[in-house]
Amino acid sequence: MIYYSKKESKNLNLKIGRIETENLQKRGFFQAVLKEEYDLIRLKIDSKHFDINHQIEKLGFPAYYCGSILRYHMHFFELTKPSFKIPNAEFVFYEQTHQQQLFDLICESFRDDPVGYYKNPLISQLLSKDQEVASMANYYVEQMQDERNKMVFLKLDGLLVGFISIFYVEDGTIDTPISGVARKYRGMSVFDDLRSFRHKYCLENNIPLGLAGARSENFYSQKTFVRDGMVHVGNESIYQITPLLSAGAKSAVSHDFRLNCESLQDALVAFQEKVVSLHEEIVPLAEFYLVAGRTCINHPFVPSPAYRLSVAKVIEDSRKILTVSKIYDQSNELSVVIYSQFQRF
Q1: Distance separating alpha carbons of residues 265 and 295, to the nearest angstrom
Q2: Before 208, cis peptide (omega within 30)?
Q3: Is the pLDDT of residue 135 over 90?
Q4: DSSP state of 80
Q5: Is the pLDDT of residue 79 over 90?
Q6: Measured between alpha carbons, how far is 283 from 153 in angstroms, rounded to an integer?
Q7: Which residue ranges does the chain devote to CATH 3.40.630.30?
Q8: Does residue 221 sit in helix, strand or coil?
Q9: At what angle do helices 99-110 and 129-143 cross, to 10 degrees?
Q10: Statement: residue 23 has pLDDT above 90
Q11: With respect to CATH, is domain 249-344 assigned 3.40.190.10?
């Protein structure tokens, strides 16, 4: 269900998962998150599911809505014949010698607004925008190892100033997951001519269908897509779910204890007491006070005679501290997660 984004996780030093689904299977999703102890999951789901906010809230994990992506289809043989605006433009297909140039162009094009993790109030405190855009650029450079994926540069005055992707999905269909233009060359019809080249390429190679998408707030892309004759086919909502279950693990403190509780309610009271005792070791309680908390329970909860508690400071600055407390049963399964937010007096 959840795809482990291994290289992205390594680049950003967080355990990251990704999932695209038509319908969120809440129970299976929750258990997969606990089993793999993800820090961040990027969820993409069809916007027609109006109850998704409620489903995500019921999971109990911190979450952030990142907006939506509008999806389009391009029927190349039905569009107006492509034309070009820049007389001296050259078009160059990506080769392995272009690795650094593609990396630099992606960073230049998306430095202000990369994947969107930086918008998340929690994640933005764990990584920088520069780390995020570098990870994004590395991903697409690695995608070029697949010979089915094409990248086309527009060259002006000896410089590569823009690019557009042509990734094969299946026979007769391509996708354009990324395109960009160096800031200095925006407003000079570079993106227009790149789209025209893609159109020309697909006509010459008998590819009738293209897929594309853009964030809802990207008014320029929406305008150009409609002007090009593309067909809007749907919207996808993007969420970042942030369990933060692996972050801070190296600095976590642990405590083994036994407990004789028959009910979940009694067990939760006991767990809270244990968490408070470990907070006294890692949180300067004379300077900070508890302002918020939430608890996630792996149902069905089965009482266990022995538990292990691990408490980590995941976020800490001069004003606030966020801890994540994980309680494992005697089978080493994660049973309960408690989030505690502290603020300076």
Answers
A1: 12
A2: no
A3: yes
A4: P
A5: yes
A6: 52
A7: 74-230
A8: helix
A9: 140
A10: no
A11: no
Mean pLDDT confidence for 91-119: 95
- Do 271 and 327 contact (CB within 8 A), yes or no? yes
Q: Is the dihedral of CA 79, 83, 86, 88 positive or negative?
A: positive
Q: What is the pLDDT of residues 279-310, one digit of tens each?
A: 998 999 899 999 999 999 998 888 889 999 99
**What pLDDT, on the 0 to 100 scale, is given for residue 1?**
83
Check the CA dihedral 129-102-83-201 and report its sign. Answer: negative
What's the CA gap between 122 and 243, in Å, rounded?
10
Statement: residue 109 has pLDDT above 90:
yes
The overall average pLDDT reported for the chain is 93
Residue 176 is predicted with a pLDDT of 97
Closest CA to 179 of 233, 220, 234: 220
| 173 residue type, one letter | T
Which sign, positive or negative, has the C-alpha torsion 182, 187, 188, 194?
positive
Query: What are the angstrom distances between the C-alpha of 282 and each of 109, 215, 256?
Result: 42, 41, 17
Amino acid at 193: D
What Å distances lie between residue 203 and 81, 89, 163, 257, 323, CA to CA? 9, 20, 19, 68, 56
Q: What is the pLDDT of residue 300?
A: 84
The pTM of this model reads 0.91
Residue 250 has pLDDT above 90, yes or no: no
- CB-based contacts of 197: which residues, under 8 Å, 6+ apart? 82, 84, 91, 152, 154, 164
| Residue whose tokens read 């992205």 | 8
Name every residue whose Cβ is closer than 8 Å to that of residue 331 and which is 6 or more positions away in sequence: 304
Distance (Å, rounded) from C-alpha 9 to C-alpha 336?
A: 24
Tokens 């809270």 found at: 272
Summarize the confidence of residues 148-170 as an average pLDDT: 96
User: Which pLDDT score, from 0 to 100, does residue 53 have?
Assistant: 84
pLDDT attached to residue 260: 87
CA–CA separation, 177 and 115 (whole Å): 12
Query: CATH topology for 74-230?
Result: Aminopeptidase (3.40.630)
User: Which residues of the chain form CATH 3.10.129.10?
Assistant: 249-344
Q: What angle do CA 242, 246, 249 make, to 5 degrees?
A: 135
